[in-house]
Amino acid sequence: MSETATKKRVPVKRWIILGLIALGIYAAFLGPTYLRPVAPVVVLPSEPTGISIFGFEITNTILATLLADIVLLLLAFNAWRFAKSGNLVPSGVHNFFEMLVEAFWNMAEGSAGKWAKRFFPITGTIFLLVFTANMIKLVPGFESIGRIAESPHGEGYAPIQILPGLYSIDKGKPVHLEHTESEGETHAVEGEVAGSPCTACEIIPFLRGSATDLNFTLALAVVTVVMVQVFGVMAMGPGYFEKFLQFRRLVNGGPFGIIDFLVGFLEIILEFAKIISFTFRLFGNIFAGALLLSIIGALTAVAIPAGLYIFEVFFGIIQAYVFSLLALVFMSQAVAGHHGGEAEGAEAH
Amino acid sequence: MTGDIVEAMRLLGAGLAMLGAIGAGVGVGLAAAGGVQAMGRNPDAAPIIQTNMILGMAFAEAVAIYALAVALIIIFAA
Fold this sequence. Notes:
heterodimer; A: alpha+beta; 2 domains; two-stranded antiparallel ribbon; two-stranded antiparallel sheet; 11 helices; 7 strands; B: mainly alpha; F1FO ATP Synthase; 0% strand
């Protein structure tokens, strides 16, 4: 029974995969030089795409974030329409949404109790945004399609025209602008692309992963930490700030009161450390991942990057989860107050 | 020439700053080891252990993140 079933199946997919691998080998090692992988350029700040709205310049990471937002809005609209339809059995993408909402609701309720209703929208939004931004970053075309421009370092590649108005960079011809003779040489060789926009070129991508920009992660971190303070005040009123300025302990705490008062300053520093660690955790992981992909892609172009892509998917999920989980834990700590910590400190002394 | 030496020293310093990642690596490994051991002994508590394990890993990782921040500052800002 199973014998015939396996015999009937036509092995199409393996031929497709083998064909793709052969295509990859051709492009990376045998084909024209403009198809070859390029050594990565480490660029920390996001680059402008040339689009600007009301004088506000849209950088490539903003564009990617907007794209992630649009995808999320479409998914949310889809889920909302499904919820409206009255159909109780979800399928496909709705199933995924139900699983996600259920998991996050349980997580929020498990650690925050009655505050879960307030925390859940924030942690859920953070997870969905970071997750979508990290997944959308892995789509081919990100960080590779862009406009061609003069390299600011004077080290780039010669341009090559694929179609009229459509250029690529020729990885076989690196150009260093310091040496004027090599510049003249490339001009002589590339006679037909005399109208090209630059001599030592690099590609400035239209789309770059949102989390490879510090602004994106810093904005999320600041929002999260500010919301932690807001929830703390909502739960305990102005008494929340006693955690930072422990005047009461200073007055009636004796010699240990002074220590507690100084610990309050440490708490203030800790709030800023939260912002820093939130920011750099997400940024560091995603930026290092993007860098790793491009470096390994330049070294071994064919098989290994596919495995690393799986790794990147995994890291994207984990980082989104860690970000929202930490936000939830900090918020729960803020509303739970510092009485437990104080009692612990008293016991220790 | 001196500019080249300063540049080289800066890159060396950035590399040395990332030595801080050693401790974070050990910490994350210990957290994972403890978590897996606990899950092996008490599989029913796996979800709670997993959540706390990931939390602990995130905090252990923070040290490496500070090292990364220092390295990036040395390379790009200083």
